[in-house]
Amino acid sequence: DSGVTQTPKHLITATGQRVTLRCSPRSGDLSVYWYQQSLDQGLQFLIQYYNGEERAKGNILERFSAQQFPDLHSELNLSSLELGDSALYFCASSAPRGNNSPLHFGNGTRLTVT
Amino acid sequence: KNEVEQSPQNLTAQEGEFITINCSYSVGISALHWLQQHPGGGIVSLFMLSSGKKKHGRLIATINIQEKHSSLHITASHPRDSAVYICAVRGNQFYFGTGTSLTVIP
Fold first, then answer.
1. DSSP three-state, residue B99
2. Model confidence pLDDT, tens digit, residues A3-29
3. Which chain A residues are Cβ-neighbours of B30 within 8 angstroms?
4. Could you tell me if A107 and A92 are in contact, meaning their C-beta atoms sit under 8 angstroms apart?
5. pLDDT attached to residue A82
6. A61-86, pLDDT tens digit by residue?
7. Hey, are the CB atoms on A42 and B95 less than 8 Å from each other?
8. Which pLDDT band, with edges at 50, 70 and 90, does A40 fall under?
9. In 3D, which of B72, B50, B61 has the Cα closest to residue B6?
10. Could you tell me the end-to-end alpha-carbon distance of chain A, in angstroms, rounded to an integer?
């Protein structure tokens, strides 16, 4: 058990809809990362938050947004969903030692857009 | 353009064999991660390296910063090592290799 909790485990929704994925980091970890894993593109980095502030940005679409709250949990919002957004979305957290800390992954949220 | 290249893509080994997975990258990095993903989908971080070599049980990871290359070695491989192994580098953001699918046959 990594200590990182992601909810929900599965999500099925229709095109055009909006969903929110939630992540609770390991106790004491200040950094939260979001990743997308699709069959055709593999793992891709979306965004990192550190103690409530955006720290790094990857291949995150404008239709997607994220935030980290004062209690350090994070939410990833996906809007105007398309079929191609169907993927596994992982959250990871790391200890407050800059960028060079081991990552602890949640079990992922499997999103299916129909 | 792939910032991270892994080889081989697929690997089948007999139980007990010594296994090497290679990772080359083209960007400046502060750290390199080796990840393991089992068929159920969960991801586990095996190593984080910024220099030198690390060992954990039967797993060894090395990195050569000058050559921008890392290797993951598995000694005395076992069927439970069957998984996808992914190399990831942290530069200004994360970049991932496409993964090496390892199958160890009893």
1. coil
2. 999 999 999 999 999 999 999 999 989
3. 98-100
4. no
5. 97
6. 999 999 999 999 999 999 999 999 99
7. no
8. confident
9. B72
10. 31
Q: Are strands A10-13 and A109-113 parallel, antiparallel or unpaired?
A: parallel
Q: Please give the pLDDT value at position A59.
A: 85
| Closest Cβ–Cβ partner in A102, A103, A107 for B42 | A107
Task: Look at residues B2, B14, B4, B3 and name the one whose alpha carbon lies nearest to residue B102.
Answer: B14
Chain A residues near residue B44 by CB distance under 8 angstroms:
2, 105
Q: Chain B: nearest CA to A99, how far in angstroms?
A: 7
Phi and psi dihedrals of A85, rounded to 5?
-85, -10
| Cβ <8 Å between A105 and B50 | no
Answer whether the bond into residue B79 is a cis peptide, omega within 30°.
no
